[in-house]
Amino acid sequence: MSAGLCIVALTGCSLFSSRNGATIGYYLPLTVQLRSDPSLAVAQLTYQDACGQQQSLSLGAPFQDVLKHKTGRVFEKVLTGEMGSSPAPDGYVDVALGIIHLDLAIVRQANKSYPATVTVGLDFAYTAADGTVLYSKKIQSIGRGEVDVTASSCEVKGLDKIAQEAFGLVTDGMAKQLGTASKILNAADASKANGSKAHAATTPPPSPIVTSGTASPQAVTQQSATAVSLPASVEGTVRVIFRAIIRDENRNQVLHSGEAIAIELEVKNEGSGTARAVELSVVSTPPVIERIPGLVSIGDLQPGEVKRVTVDGQVGTINEAMQAELTLVLRAGSSSVQLPTAKKFLVAMKPASAAGALSQPLDVDQVPKRTGLLKQPKAVAIVIGVGQFRESGMARVKYAARDAEVLAGYLKSVGGIPPERVRILLDTNALKSDLAEVLEEWLPQQVDPATVVYVSVTGRGVVDAATGAVSMLLFDGTTSSSARLYSLRRLQESLAKLPIQRAIVMLDLSLELAPGKEAAGAVAPQWDQEGAGKEKILWMVGNRAVQESYSYDPGQHGLFAYQLLKGMGGAADLDRDGLILAGELCTYTKRQVLKVAQEQYGKEQEPLCLPGPGHGSLARLQIMARLK
User: Within a domain: residue 230?
Assistant: First the structure.
């Protein structure tokens, strides 16, 4: 029965590109059997076209092709099909389709583009030949884009490209997880040390992934009620409420020409019956906000259900300062649904102006020429950037991933840390379990008493209003569940128990209070972590208060990250001795962030250095860069 066996052998050195332009390729010296769950073969998206007719987009074949290709970049040989009499592989990669979700609202048949997102989830695992599960994970990725419709056709164009982006992202994430998992790396090292040898034929171990069988996964499609006829019957009393927040790109509550904005909506059904065909009407007066559809589908809401939706838009051309009114109205498919009154927002709008702008910003993405002067062969860096989240209602952090990638480059080139000792976790590859694995499993294997550890986290954080305890939000985190957060206390304890020389922790978090307590009675964020080992850790905090961290658009980075990178490039050498110390860098960055935040936004963002000058911390003397 060996006719069904296909071997993908990759002996070249080409790499495939990830979503951020980086390359991923591991080619671990292992032969694996790829076992795809039947759910992958029948994957499809069901949607309503511009004429309201149901259509389906088959995704199985291209999805499986991408999956095989990406798995082949992780392992030297990938077997597919039936094993027959072929030698047993070193391990088995099992993959099943998790969620596949389409968010699309086509209001009418017209020459128009509509935003769409495709969310794809994968469940995957690596099992050794002896049946030991070495790694198991569930991940999700989101493809975003626009579909096009015309007044003369029912066809929806462009959905396949958005789905392909989602496939690429989620399989990139799977490849990275498999290629960097410590237990799989150990198995690869053992295989390489023992040399290649034939495996005796054995019975393959069962897949550790629990699936719902071979039925086609349900693709959840959110579609406008104007295109889809939904039943209007409502059982029981139905009362729908909602809250909305408007966030502008610069977080200064003033909209400028060309600035991106987002409407974050949370809708809840407080009744005992189902609210059907709920949708949001968005009206701007004057109509200067572009790319926001007039109607946004929320879908059906079960009793007690809460849905969160983010609608992205952009400010059009503004010729003079004005005040605009944005009105949000909920609608439903039945008149018996009790709906809230409309919400109206008054927003100040100004034309783009060079007045008061800074001089041409330094391009911090260009690593300084004089690199390699500092060598830290035993140093280790963990860099995390989370700018998007699994929960659709979570506000994004614009430059988080970019900040993390560039800082990682600085730590390798300017900081002299070996590339193989720098771990980077970005967006969908930065789950709570990922951080726990890196900090609590991988890191302890890399350190000794001469090691300096660098940890950087850019994204969002949550403050416990009663205690002030700060926790980090990873990609799968949510403010409503403490179990899905990673606390700074846990980070501090992980570092404190390591046999290291010292640690430098850089945090740039937009902070919000955990639900359940009014802001007036909240405690300020608690940054000074108590416990053993705190004296060997320097904390560089980019934003000490419960507020958003500012983006610095002229430099295409977060404000704190931009000043930090600028400082590492040489600006923080305050005493001109050719060395940039950690304490020196933190002091420089703090002053610059305070200054620019006040000048550019008229508000304060205050960084924090702990411990401060004169408090005897040797971590403040750690060399971050050498200029001569």
Answer: no
